[in-house]
Each structure stands twice: as structure tokens, then as C-alpha cells.
Amino acid sequence: MVRKAEHSDILGLTALLYQVDAVHHGIRPDLFKSNTPKYSEQELERLLDDADKPVFVYDDGKILGHAFCQITEVRNHRLLQDIKTLYIDDICVDEAARGRHIGQALYEHVCDYARSLGCYNITLNVWGGNDPAYAFYRRMGMRVQKTGMETIL
């Protein structure tokens, strides 16, 4: 079942964050350090108390997936329309539990949550080379909004 993450989930979240790092380090070792989770335990404790950065977990007696989110809002901008956006900062399903539609359950829960807040859209970033994630998000109905590019010097 998908639910809001609690402080007691920090060890499970950390284990998944190591898996995310392994994927990112495998794709871009020039950018990502190896064997380093995105957040420390202390950062996770603060994050779980931040209403603008909800974290959801898939709990089956063990934390099998997570979705780290951020709520952002544009208001009174000279160029942009006033909109509220839910940004998925990180989503992961335990590699041992993939293929069980856990990612879909997390994504659908996030969509429902965003709708309940009156969000206009859901956005996220996918690293080039992370083809399984890209394909998953396409299956969920996401489309390309913009493309980030770089030149390595």
C-alpha cells in the first residue's frame, strides 16, 4: 500500500536511495559519487517534516518503493501563468520487487495527491541513458516538456 512516509521509514528510504545512486553513478560516474545516498539521515528527518516536500512509500511490510516530491507554485510572474506543480524529485522501486506494478501504484498515488492540491501538472527529470525510467514514465502517460543539454569541456 502507498502511504506518506514516516520517520520510522528512514532506513528503508536510505536503502532505496543507495539503489538510485547506483543507477545514476552507472550512467554518469563523472557526476555521481558511488555508494552515496542523495540524503543523509538528518536530511531525511527534516524532509519528512516539510509539508511542501511530501514523501510517499510503498509499504508491504517492508519499504519497496518511494516517491520524493516537491510542491512549487508560480504566482504573479511577468511571463509565466500562475500554476501549482508537483515535481517528482525521485522515484524508486526496490530492484528485487520490480515488475509488480509498485511504480505504477506510487505514480498514481502521486497523481491523485497532486489533483487534490489543485496542481496543474506533474514534472520530473530523467537522466539521459536511464532508458527503463524513461520508458516507465512514457507508459504512465508523461510527455517531454523540455530537454536539458550539456557540453562537457
Architecture overview:
20% of the residues are buried. A 5-stranded mixed beta sheet has the order 1-2-3-4-5. The model has no long low-confidence stretch (mean pLDDT 98). It is 33% helix and 23% strand. It has one domain (2-139): 3-Layer(aba) Sandwich (Aminopeptidase), CATH 3.40.630.30. It is globular, with a radius of gyration of 16 Å. The chain has 153 residues and is an alpha+beta fold.
Task: Provide the fold topology.
Elements: E1 2-4, H1 10-27, H2 41-48, E2 55-59, E3 63-74, E4 83-93, H3 102-116, E5 121-124, H4 131-139
Parallel strand pairs: 4-5
Antiparallel strand pairs: 1-2, 2-3, 3-4
Brief descriptors of the model:
153 residues, alpha+beta, Aminopeptidase, five-stranded mixed sheet, 4 helices, globular
Brief summary of the model shown:
The protein is of the alpha+beta class. Helices cover 33% and strands 23% of the residues.
CATH architecture: 3-Layer(aba) Sandwich
- Give the full name of the CATH homologous superfamily: Gcn5-related N-acetyltransferase (GNAT)
> How many strands in all?
5
If you compute it from the alpha carbons, what radius of gyration comes out, rounded to the nearest whole angstrom?
Answer: 16 Å
Number of domains: 1
Instruction: Report the CATH topology name.
Output: Aminopeptidase
DSSP helical segment count: 4
